[in-house]
């Protein structure tokens, strides 16, 4: 591996830590430590998750144009550090400023580290794929550590110390970046090739954009209803734009591929809507309505999300081996089949929860084994839909529209997070109580509705597989096994 690859692996571990803590703890911190209502905490959490995904687009635009990728990443890490420090102050204004500052960093630097990995290699260097896989492993290690320490400090109600510790992770990532500064320089970007005068002007524009973004994010997190409406309008507009472009497309093959993309994108929205309940309604359900004693240990809600991390780390390579084995025997697992399977798995994951709720103990607490089974199914479903998304867009998008369609695909999880917030509020019910004996009914209804809806969508998509394959002209070798399973930093949670 070239010099700098190891540094980027470590940077990814520590850069992810702060995000994983906030992702898994935000709604618990807001309700338990700040006394925020469940509804408001859910709205803020949903907006935070959605904005994080939307900002990936802006990070990709600023990096390499107005600031070098390494500079933008360093600024982002500094903002994450300041954001965690502000969040540690137990007041709602500090929380909102902290989240805004953190988002201005994390939302922008995800694409930067992706570019820094790419720039270490020549275009045809086969080691680049291994470097991305190592970086993906680093990201999951960061999530595992973040979820683990988040749960520990949550059980001890030590939120202030938790977010200060998150600052340390960001600081270490910043130190590693500074130490390896020369190794992480940009290559072949418009910024690096510009004159000194243009670079100076570009830096001012880039820094000005970040400062403006910070205040815009603060306003959006204050007005979550407006924020949600803006994100949904943008999401729907992008879908409408692609549909209009598809209708106007002169070539039948390209038009059909774009229509196939729209069908798969709708399936993706459904999947991620259920999946993103994890940091919101599902998190509160686990804390309040589940008997979290398992094998003699009191399980923190954040630790449950490590079920996902472990299955992704172990399941990815196993699925790669399985796909290779099947392809050698002439069996092709098509993209629409994987999407339909993902919908069925996550649908079953939620459809079984009402059965567990109906078997709750006298205090209304559901057995932890039902949560364990649900998360295992959700995570397995993720293996079938998340890794192939970007490769699928590359296959279906016309070259001139690849940027638009890739951007739309990146926004899908953000749109889904807003929808998840809506369904989380529905699950919480309208009665102001946390008594499981009262709230179980609304949780059961919402989980069952979502689960069976996803199962139905999966069945419909399965029936449409022949049509979608004709539209997309998918062939056995269109997307290789490694492309299906390679996750970049544009992964689901980041």
Topology:
Layout: H1 5-32, H2 38-62, H3 69-87, H4 92-118, H5 127-155, H6 159-179, H7 196-222, H8 224-248, H9 252-275, H10 281-289, E1 290-291, E2 293-294, E3 297-298, H11 301-304, H12 306-328, H13 335-351, H14 353-358, E4 366-367, H15 368-385, H16 389-396, H17 402-428, H18 436-463, H19 465-472, H20 481-485
Parallel strand pairs: 1-4
Antiparallel strand pairs: 2-3
Helix pairs in contact: 1-2, 1-4, 1-5, 1-6, 2-4, 2-7, 2-8, 2-17, 3-4, 3-6, 4-7, 5-6, 5-12, 8-9, 8-17, 9-13, 9-17, 9-18, 9-19, 12-15, 13-15, 13-18, 16-17, 17-18
Structure description:
With 494 residues, this protein is mostly helical. It has two domains: 1-222, Up-down Bundle (Growth Hormone, Chain: A), CATH 1.20.1250.20; 251-494, MFS general substrate transporter like domains (Growth Hormone, Chain: A, Up-down Bundle), CATH 1.20.1250. 77% of the residues lie in helices and 2% in strands. The protein contains 20 helices and four strands. It has helices spanning 5-32, 38-62, 69-87, 92-118, 127-155, 159-179, 196-222, 224-248, 252-275, 281-289, 301-304, 306-328, 335-351, 353-358, 368-385, 389-396, 402-428, 436-463, 465-472, 481-485, and strands at residues 290-291, 293-294, 297-298, 366-367. It has a two-stranded parallel ribbon. Strands 2-3 form a two-stranded antiparallel sheet. Helix 9 (252-275) runs antiparallel to helix 18 (436-463). The chain is globular, with a radius of gyration of 22 Å. Mean pLDDT is 89; it is low at 480-493.
| Mass-distribution shape | globular
The CATH superfamily of the largest domain appears as MFS general substrate transporter like domains
- How do the SSEs run, as a string of H and E? HHHHHHHHHHEEEHHHHEHHHHHH
Q: Say what the CATH topology of the largest domain is.
A: Growth Hormone, Chain: A
Number of helices: 20
CATH architecture of the largest domain: Up-down Bundle
Instruction: Report the sheet-strand fraction.
Output: under 5%
Largest sheet, order of strands side by side? Answer: 1-4
Regions with pLDDT < 50 over 5+ consecutive residues? 480-493
């Amino acid at each position: 591996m070239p010099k700098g690859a190891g540094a980027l692996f470590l940077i990814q571990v520590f850069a992810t830590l702060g995000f994983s803590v906030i992702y898994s703890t935000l709604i618990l911190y807001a309700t338990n430590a700040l006394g925020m209502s469940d509804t408001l905490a859910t709205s803020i959490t949903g907006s935070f998750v959605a904005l994080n995904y939307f900002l990936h687009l802006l990070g990709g635009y600023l990096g390499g144009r107005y600031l070098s990728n390494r500079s933008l990443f360093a600024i982002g890490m500094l903002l994450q550090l300041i954001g965690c420090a502000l969040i540690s102050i137990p007041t709602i204004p500090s929380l909102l400023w902290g989240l805004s500052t953190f988002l201005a960093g994390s939302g922008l630097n995800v694409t930067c580290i992706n570019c820094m990995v790419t720039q270490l290699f020549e275009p045809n260097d086969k080691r680049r794929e291994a470097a991305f896989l190592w970086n993906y492993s680093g990201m999951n290690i960061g999530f595992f550590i973040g979820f683990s320490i988040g749960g520990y400090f949550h059980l001890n109600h030590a939120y202030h110390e938790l977010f200060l510790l998150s600052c340390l992770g960001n600081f270490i990532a910043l130190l590693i970046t500074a130490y390896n500064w020369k190794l992480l320089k940009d290559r072949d970007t418009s910024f690096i090739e510009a004159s000194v005068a243009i670079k100076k002007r570009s830096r001012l524009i880039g820094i000005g954009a970040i400062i403006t973004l910070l205040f815009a994010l603060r306003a959006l997190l204050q007005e979550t209803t407006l924020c949600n409406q803006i994100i949904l309008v943008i999401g729907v507009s992008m879908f409408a734009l692609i549909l209009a472009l598809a209708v106007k497309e002169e070539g039948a093959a390209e038009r059909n591929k774009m229509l196939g993309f729209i069908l798969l994108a709708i399936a993706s929205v459904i999947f991620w809507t259920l999946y993103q309940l994890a940091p919101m309604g599902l998190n509160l359900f686990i804390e309040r309505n589940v008997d979290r004693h398992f094998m003699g240990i009191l399980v923190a809600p954040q630790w449950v999300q490590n079920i996902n991390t472990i299955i992704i780390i172990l399941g990815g390579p196993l699925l790669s081996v399985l796909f290779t084995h099947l392809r050698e025997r002439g069996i092709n697992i098509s993209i629409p089949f994987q999407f339909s399977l993902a919908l069925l798995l996550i649908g079953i994951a939620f459809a079984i929860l009402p059965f567990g709720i109906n078997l709750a103990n006298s205090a209304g607490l559901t057995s932890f084994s039902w949560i364990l089974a649900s998360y295992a199914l959700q995570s397995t479903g993720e293996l079938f839909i998340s890794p192939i998304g970007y490769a699928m867009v590359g296959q279906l998008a016309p070259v001139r529209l690849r940027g638009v369609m890739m951007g739309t695909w990146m926004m899908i999880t953000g749109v889904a997070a807003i929808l998840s917030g809506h369904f989380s509020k529905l699950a919480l019910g309208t009665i102001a109580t946390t008594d499981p004996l009262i709230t179980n009914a609304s949780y059961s209804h919402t989980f069952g509705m979502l689960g069976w809806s996803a199962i139905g969508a999966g069945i419909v998509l399965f029936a449409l597989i022949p049509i979608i394959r004709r539209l997309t002209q998918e062939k056995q070798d269109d997307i290789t096994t490694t492309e299906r399973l390679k996750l970049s930093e544009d992964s689901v949670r980041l």
